[in-house]
Specification:
The complex is a heterodimer. Chain A is mostly helical. Chain A has two domains: 76 residues; 65 residues, no CATH class. The longest helix of chain A is centred in the N-terminal third of the chain and has 28 residues. Chain A is elongated, with a radius of gyration of 24 Å. The two termini of chain A are 46 Å apart. By secondary structure, chain B is an all-alpha fold. Chain B has one domain. Chain B has a two-stranded antiparallel ribbon with strand order 1-2. In chain B, strand 1 and strand 2 form a beta hairpin. Classes of the chains: A mainly alpha, B mainly alpha. At the A-B interface, helix 1, helix 2, helix 3, helix 4 and helix 5 of A face helix 7, helix 8, helix 17, helix 18 and helix 19 of B.
Chain lengths: 153, 509
């Protein structure tokens, strides 16, 4: 069985997040429960069940992976392996584009994103990147804003 | 007999309705777009459909669904072209086709292999549509007897089965499913109007929007993954003689029928997607083959088995979607979200309240199958050129479309942030062996589970006895227990795949 540190960490994270959800659900349920609203009818009841189940599943995952481990950590899935360099670049670029959009016009932000990302991920021809940027940016703008009348970010 | 004739008359009427030129044009273009998407490695039918849900939300319901169904059918089929020509399955659903299809191509029979795959996919889709037409009203009439307990148990069953099948490890699948159910709890409680887990953010009062979450979970991880990989090699075989020969197809009729039945049946099970159908059917065909020695050397029969089954799965996946509002796979989960957006409520009442809608869906499937047959054969010579478009150019454009799609639904930047957050979550989860399908299913079924459990308990004064006294509840409970025990026993006997191991992925054709 392949096992990794990441699975164990993830199991604990799930259990911890679910634990917080459990606590909040319990607070909601007890706040709402009274003579006329039974505990099982409160808005906190189902989240309580779900978070309880998630705690059990998270800890089960930890227990299973620890048993499979027999005390030896495997390098796979370590934090360094979390994102491959190119994947990290892609995520950063998409994130940058998303957070740039409210501050710039759609056309400018999109052109900037497309040019940078095609230059990084297809670095062979800058001319191709520029051409793709112009065609795609204006194409998307025309199709969605002018033909389908959709509002763009 | 009378009911069957009535159903056929309904179907004929709606079929004619869909035959209008604008809808036909939309269907044809969307099937072609689906074929292209499916053919490009890294782009899946799920990605394309989730992207289009956001973009088509302002369209007329019929037009939007014609487009979504067209892309779905084309997308599942399109993967076979890359599988045959490049030995790279365009989608996980065509992974089984790559084995025999590419070997046929290497023998100089690429055109013939594409012809067989196209005809098989056409027959599979038609069979699935036929089963949808026959099985749905039957299941719908049973579902009319469902009460709150049954709907709650059905939601739990959907999440558990999807979790068991979608991920290599059922514990991981169930964690995904329950995470999805938990995400669905965010926002205003429908019964007592109390904001849950919103942390004072009014944007979350309406809950997690389905479309941004789906685009994020399905599309963003694919984009990041594709960009992280180096570009694929472009070794493409020459394509000649794509027109399938009836004689060759006739020889495989028993396999076709068996595979179509397997594909449809697997499609009905929540979470068991097109790739599982293709693999099961392929293995089954090999077991019953008169020439098993040909498998692995370029067997037409093996190609027929996988292609018929993965397309028959489409009709199967729509059966629980339309009758119970439980999607059979990830694409149908996205289509369910689209139906909600267009104010169509699938479920047992669909057949009494909007029967025309059900027959329209079947008609859309049949028409899309026709376009797939013609478009697939015609595109066989053009597609190899399209396959040379570098991923580094294509994916950034897809990213922009994802953002436009996520924003379009409510014109809120918050939805774009949500899409990005779910995208990162999806990427992280994918790397460690979790698949997005159970999360999406949980997100969709969460409100159904929440409201029905609380209502059921309220009506029974907190007693759990109705689970045992109501026959359908009892059956569903037994099925849930069998699912849990079966998955656990299987996990103990066959150790699960590792963290970065390949989850079944089938739910993401």
């Amino acid at each position: 069985m392949q096992a990794s540190k990441a699975d164990i960490i993830f199991g604990f994270v799930i259990a911890a997040v679910a634990g917080m959800m459990f606590w909040q659900s319990l607070a909601i349920a007890t706040r709402f429960a009274n003579r006329f609203t039974p505990f099982y009818f409160t808005p906190g009841f189902v989240p309580l069940l779900l978070s309880g189940t998630l705690i059990v599943l998270g800890l089960t995952l930890v227990a299973l992976k620890r048993a499979a481990f027999r005390g030896s950590w495997q390098p796979r899935g370590s934090a360094g392996d979390l994102l491959a360099a190119r994947g990290l670049w892609a995520a950063v670029m998409i994130g940058g584009y998303v957070f740039l959009l409210p501050h710039m016009h759609f056309l400018v932000a999109t052109a900037l994103f497309l040019f940078l990302s095609t230059s990084v991920f297809y670095p062979k021809r800058v001319l191709v990147s520029a051409l793709v940027t112009i065609v795609a940016t204006f194409g998307i703008y025309l199709v969605f804003a002018r033909i389908f009348f959709l509002s763009l970010p | 007999m009378h009911q069957v004739l009535e159903a056929l008359a309904f179907f004929a009427r709606e079929f004619v309705h869909i035959l209008s030129p604008p809808l036909l044009l939309a269907s044809g273009l969307s099937v072609l777009a689906g074929i292209m998407v499916g053919a490009l490695p890294g782009l899946t039918a799920t990605l394309a459909v989730s992207l289009l849900v956001g973009i088509t939300y302002s369209f007329d319901t019929t037009l939007a669904l014609v487009i979504l169904i067209g892309v779905y059918v084309g997308g599942v089929y399109g993967g076979s072209q890359t599988a045959i020509l490049l030995n790279i399955p365009g989608t996980p659903a065509s992974a089984a086709s790559a084995i025999e299809g590419n070997l046929l191509a290497r023998r100089g029979l690429a055109g013939q292999a594409i012809g067989i795959a196209t005809l098989s996919s056409f027959v599979g889709t038609l069979f699935g549509a036929l089963m949808l037409l026959v099985a749905s009203p039957l299941l719908g009439s049973i579902a009319l007897r469902f009460g709150s307990w049954e709907f709650f148990l059905l939601a739990v069953f959907g999440v558990l089965v999807c979790g068991s099948l979608a991920a290599g490890n059922p514990i991981k699948g169930w964690i995904g499913g329950f995470l999805g159910l938990s995400f669905a709890m965010i926002g205003m409680d429908a019964m007592q109007a109390f904001p849950r887990f919103t942390f004072g953010n009014i944007q979350l009062n309406g809950g997690i929007s389905l479309i941004p979450a789906m685009i994020g979970l399905f599309a963003i991880p694919e984009i990041i993954d594709s960009l992280a990989r180096k570009d694929r090699p472009a070794i493409i075989h020459k394509v000649v003689g794509v027109l399938p020969r009836w004689k060759a197809f006739k020889r495989h009729l028993p396999t076709t029928f068996r595979s179509a039945s397997i594909g449809t049946a697997i499609g009905i099970v929540p979470g068991a997607g097109e790739d599982i159908a293709a693999w099961v059917s392929y293995a089954n065909a090999k077991r019953f083959s008169k020439e098993p020695e040909l498998y692995g050397t370029g067997s037409e029969e093996g190609l027929v088995a996988s292609e018929v089954a993965n397309n028959a799965c489409i009709g199967g996946a729509l059966v629980p979607l339309l009758t119970l509002a439980i999607p059979g796979g990830s694409v149908s989960a996205v289509i369910l979200g689209a139906l909600f957006i267009h104010n169509v409520r699938p479920g047992p009442l669909l057949f009494t309240e909007q029967p025309q809608f059900f027959y329209q869906i079947v008609a859309m499937l049949v028409i899309a199958a026709g376009f797939m047959l013609v478009g697939g054969l015609a595109a066989a010579r053009v597609l190899p050129r399209l396959l040379q478009v570098p991923v580094g150019v294509l994916m950034p454009v897809i990213t922009v479309l994802c953002i436009v799609g996520a924003f379009a639904v409510s014109s809120r930047m918050f939805d774009v942030y949500l899409m990005f957050a779910f995208g990162l979550l999806g990427y992280f989860l994918k790397r460690y062996g979790y698949t997005p399908a159970p999360i999406v299913l949980g997100l969709i079924l969460g409100p159904m589970a929440d409201e029905n459990l609380r209502r059921a308990l309220f009506l029974s004064d907190g007693s759990l006895m109705p689970i045992l006294t109501r026959p359908i509840s009892l059956i569903l409970t037994a099925v849930i227990l069998v699912t849990i025990l079966g998955s656990l026993i299987q996990m103990v006997r066959r150790p699960p795949s590792g963290p970065t191991g390949s989850p079944s992925s089938g739910v993401n054709p």
